[in-house]
C-alpha cells in the first residue's frame, strides 16, 4: 500500500522507506529580500538557498503522520504530528 509523506508530499511504500528516502525543506521559502531586520532573507530559511525549486536540504524517512500547517496569514509553516488516516488515495492524473 502506498502512503503519503507529509514532509515531501510524495507517495511511498514501506519497503522502499529508508533513512534518506525523503528530501524536504524544514522551513519556508521567502521570495523577497526586503526584510531590513534580517529575520527573513530571500530564499529557504533553513539552508539559505535562493532557488525556490531547490531540492530539499534535509533527509529523513518518509512519514505519513505529519502534515505541513501554515501559520495564520503567513507563508511560514510548521510540521505537526497527526493521527494517520486509514488510507490516502493517490490523486488521478
Structure explained in plain terms:
With 93 residues, the protein is mainly beta. Helices cover 0% and strands 28% of the residues. It has one domain (2-81): btk motif of tyrosine-protein kinase itk, CATH 4.10.1130. It contains no helices and eight strands. The two termini are 19 Å apart.
Total beta strands: 8
Q: List the total number of helices.
A: 0
Task: Identify the CATH class.
Answer: Few Secondary Structures
Give the biggest sheet.
2 strands, antiparallel
Kindly report how far apart the N and C termini lie. 19 Å
As a percent range, the share of helical residues equals under 10%
The radius of gyration is 15 Å
Instruction: Give the count of structural domains.
Output: 1
Strand content: 25-35%
Structural class: mainly beta
User: What is the CATH-assigned architecture?
Assistant: Irregular
Task: Give the uncertain stretches in residue-range form.
Answer: none
Principal-axes geometry comes out as elongated
Q: Give me the oligomer status.
A: single chain
Protein traits:
single chain, mainly beta, btk motif of tyrosine-protein kinase itk, two-stranded antiparallel ribbon, 8 strands, elongated
Question: What's the layout of helices and strands?
Answer:
Layout: E1 2-4, E2 11-13, E3 22-24, E4 29-30, E5 43-44, E6 58-60, E7 66-70, E8 77-81
Antiparallel strand pairs: 1-2, 3-6, 4-5, 7-8
Give the gist of this structure.
The chain has no helices and eight strands. With 93 residues, the protein is mainly β. A hairpin with a 6-residue loop joins strand 7 and strand 8.
Amino acid at each position: 500500500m502506498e502512503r503519503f509523506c507529509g514532509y515531501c508530499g510524495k507517495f511511498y511504500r514501506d519497503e522502499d522507506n529508508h533513512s534518506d528516502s525523503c528530501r524536504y525543506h524544514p522551513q519556508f521559502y521567502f521570495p523577497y529580500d526586503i526584510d531590513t531586520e534580517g529575520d527573513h532573507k530571500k530564499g529557504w530559511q533553513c539552508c539559505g538557498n535562493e532557488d525556490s525549486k531547490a531540492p530539499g536540504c534535509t533527509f529523513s524517512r518518509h512519514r505519513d503522520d505529519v502534515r505541513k500547517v501554515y501559520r495564520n496569514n503567513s507563508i511560514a509553516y510548521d510540521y505537526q504530528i497527526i493521527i494517520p488516516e486509514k488510507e490516502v488515495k493517490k490523486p488521478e492524473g
